[in-house]
Amino acid sequence: MTSKKNIDPSLPLEQFPFPLEWIKSHPDKVEEALARMSVAEQVRSVQMLRGQEQLDLLILSRQTEQVVRLLPEEDIYYMIKEIGEEDAIPVLALLSTKQLQYVFDMEWWRGDKFVPQNALDWLRWVAKANDQLLLDWILTEDFDLKVMVLQSLIKVFKPDEMTDQYDGVEDLEHFTLDGVFDIFVKVPDAAPLLKNLFKLLYADHQKVFFALMEAVIWYPITPTVEVAYRWWRSRVEEKGIVGYEEAIGVYSLLDSDSLKLDAAPQEAFEEQGSAYAMAPVYPLADTDPATFFGQCLAMLKNHKRVNALCWELMYVANKVMVADRQDFTHIDIRHEIMRKVLGYINIGLELGAGGDIAKGEALLNQTWMQSLFQVGYAGVMRLKWEGEKLVKEHGLLLEQVLTPGYMDHLAAAVSRFPEIGVTFTEEPEEAETNIQWRNLESLQDIQTLENFLNLANFYVRFARQSLGLSLEQISQYLEEARFPENKEDLDIKMLTLTALARFALFKEIGCQPLLPEGARSFLQIIFHVGIFKDESRVVNEDIVKAFKERLLTTSLAWTGEDRERLDQLLQECVHMLGTQFGRLDPKKTIEWQFTRGLLLK
User: Fold this and answer.
1) Which of 379, 395, 413 is a domain's end point?
2) Based on the domain organization, do 493 and 373 belong to the same domain?
3) Where are the alpha helices (DSSP H) in 289-330?
4) Of 232, 310, 424, 502, which is the most buried if we count CB atoms within 10 A?
């Protein structure tokens, strides 16, 4: 059996043709296996891998150039970015001029701005990989684009009455190939590249060389850049890289009831020409097969629909990149955006299908990916608006009852694109500091964040209506209190514990700070006497139960969920009592500054 460890599990492709470990351990067997496969089959095998493993497999093919040139431009670009430009030189050397132009289109522009340094860097990489490929690109690329690039790197003059001014060339490196055109290099480290390229061009394509030199002299810079930009825009718009005004429309809200089974089939892409003959599979590289989307995708039997789905995902992701004003050249950002897109689509698919896998497959088979994205986005936004309403109504009081960690979660919930915090530690005391933030990816994420918002809302209502607190009172108590020394340590658990202490001592509900003597008496009351000297004592649950019953008589309109949250809060308070005070001897001196849980004067 073939190991699936490094194969993209989300792709409904055929079984990998040989064990992956053979690429390293038995390259001769891999070479023989590839020789028995068609070019298209080899391409599909390469698409099932990622990054360096793709290159390792390509090197073993006897038809490497044909395989590389059949790969979709988008997959080629992703491969190069994941491997890194230096290590990807063997791939760069085999690109077609169309694939190369796609790489340049992605790398040379930031929005509507041409970045000359990026152009120079990539021209160097290509020249290092394959001089002939760079020459072929010069011979076939749009003329205005070539002139724009050259004008950013050189100045050209020739000795006649109109072009012999030679202004602004002091200290610039100079060379000439024919004694007519004097070329001055504006970017010093570009000289070796340009000299070699112009020599190749002059040797066999003098007419092209002369035309380019004349254009560098005479073409006005701004109009030339504008024409080059229009050509670039026409190319990338076919890939979903549209203007900002159009791209922001991807964030339109759509209700799940509005989903229609009317997506374009693969034939809609095939009719547009050979450019769509093979779909890029990188849009599925970040898919988790365990998600609802991943499960529905695995059920799709129509590979043409899978190909169409890949194109749609690419378009949506590119629109989101533009709308979010992200840099297309950073592979980590591209992965992050694709995970965001897949997450919102997963949410939209779950909402539309109601959790029914069969219905989800039908929706995936016949619904536009952008529509599913917009349904998921609408679900996330509704949650964001709930959080914003909570902050608007109770903002300052929330800061007093929530821990700083909880406030971070609240801030993430109401950010431009709500995020959820995932803890990556098993130690409870480290939970608030060991958090990774990510976009919402499922209905479970939405439910988790919704539960958090409901809990925060309960804490505020509980503080006001059961503990009788206001923002002014809390501020006053903090001014009176000696402990906690760090006022940011105050939260709903400390307030509730203080209220429990006053209830145990005075049979009242309140949160006024205690005197140390009162706190000492509370510890004597709340704990059962331990048998052994150093053992942690057990909290008297009868007192906690009586406190709970008293709280339930307060003016809060207690719902079943409120009661559950109160039980959880009291459990956390009991746990804090045990960890902070369970081993202390009330009869001895207590250094209260090293404890946490009570407001003390």
Assistant:
1) 379
2) no
3) 292-299, 303-323
4) 310
Q: Coil, helix or strand for 110?
A: strand
- Residue 102 within any structural domain of the chain: no
Tell me the sheet residues that pair with 421.
Answer: 437
Structural domain count of the chain? 2
My answer on whether omega of the bond before 159 falls inside 30° of 0, hence cis, is: no
182-185 and 109-110 beta bridge pairing: unpaired
Q: Consecutive sets of 10 residues in the chain, 601 residues long: mean pLDDT of each? A: 41 68 94 94 92 95 96 95 94 96 95 93 95 94 95 90 70 91 92 95 96 95 95 92 95 88 53 59 91 94 88 96 94 95 98 94 93 97 96 93 93 96 65 81 96 97 96 95 92 97 96 96 89 72 97 95 97 95 90 94 93
Q: Looking at the structure, do residues 371 and 486 belong to the same domain, yes or no? A: no
Q: Residue 129 and residue 94: Cα distance in Å, rounded?
A: 9
157 strand-pairing partners:
182
Q: Name which of 432, 412, 570 is nearest 489 in CA terms.
A: 432
List, in order, residues 6 or more apart from 59 with CB less than 8 Å away: 90
Is residue 273 a part of any domain in this protein?
Answer: yes
Q: Which residues contact 374 (CB under 8 A, 6 or more apart)?
A: 250, 251, 252, 253, 254, 348
pLDDT of residue 137: 94
Measure the CA–CA gap between 441 and 380, rounded to whole angstroms. 10
How far, in Å, are 18, 334, 528, 530, 583 from residue 542 at the CA level?
67, 57, 11, 17, 20
Q: What is the DSSP letter of 103?
A: H
Please check whether residue 229 lies inside any domain of the structure. Answer: no
Domain that holds residue 584: 469-601
479 and 365 housed in the same domain: no
Helix (H, G, I), strand (E, B) or coil at 590: coil
- Domain end among 347, 379, 411: 379
Q: How high is the pLDDT of residue 10?
A: 43
- Biggest CA–CA distance in the chain, Å, is 109
Domain shared by 249 and 371, yes or no: yes
Give the gyration radius of the chain's Cα atoms: 33
What is the C-alpha separation between 362 and 548, in angstroms, rounded?
Answer: 50
SS (H, E, C) 450-496: HHHHHHHHHHHHHHHHCCCCCHHHHHHHHHHCCECCCHHHCCHHHHH
